[in-house]
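Board notes, transcribed. Complex of a protein with zinc ion.
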Amino acid sequence: MLSLCNPDERQISESPPRVYAHRRQNKPAFLVFVLNCMPLASNVILHTVTFSPTDKQGNVMHKYVIMGVQGCGKGTQAKMLAEDFDFVHISVGDLFRWNIQNHTKLAARIKRIIADGQLVPDEIVEQLIRRRLDDHDWNFGYILDGFPRNGRQALFFLESYDIDAVIQIDVSDEVVLQRVLSRRLCSQCGLDYNVIHHRPAVDNQCDVCGGELVTRADDNERAVRERLETYHTKTEPAVKLFSRKELIVNVDGTLPPHEVQAEIRTRLQLPQRVECTESG
Ligand SMILES: [Zn+2]
């Protein structure tokens, strides 16, 4: 998994976090993965690779936004893309957390606003995004996750930046509700469980440490329905705006994660994850 800040390189400053993983090597990770697989596989089929925009140095750039209601799996999908293609995964939630952990001036402002019971204004979120995107610290592109959240933020984004596509992961409200309400967390070691797909061996008991499994405070039906309502009223206008610009790529988020990933890659004309299989 990509960590937002390599501890060795972390500096306490007003600079937002960077992802260093993409500087590990000169080749995109998926290529390294393919090359590593080659000796094992005699029947590896490489899908046609269609690359589009390049920067001034001729490097191929991919700029995506990923959208969907909480619980749609967009974090998982963004991470898979980021890992295989060395895209920088820009999570707005992580940006907020980083600013707060590092006691930046912006974090102090945000804390005051939240303490006053207000929502963080668009202007501050946009400032955060602008600073982060001004870094240009990607070699192959980025996936923006958690922004824009409303029509105004989408307008700001479209006016300031160019993107290749907006990946919209579609999941019905009922599926989100079922997914979120089945989440459990070990109260001792923090391991995640799901009472539908990832059950512990003994009910309500962590397989690893024996701790009691609990539900997160905001994983209750009322809170989930409120978040869904906020998405439908505030964020969907942003989706519509992108849709009018023909940037939206809709993907069925109820499929298993690897199938969702495959569908995203098909739609974006990105190479598929390579299965290493031996012939015969
Ligand atoms: Zn545990």
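Strands lie at 62-67, 88-91, 141-145, 165-170, 183-186, 192-194, 213-214, 248-252. The pocket of zinc ion is lined by residues 186, 188-189, 191, 206, 208-209, 211 (CB under 6 Å).
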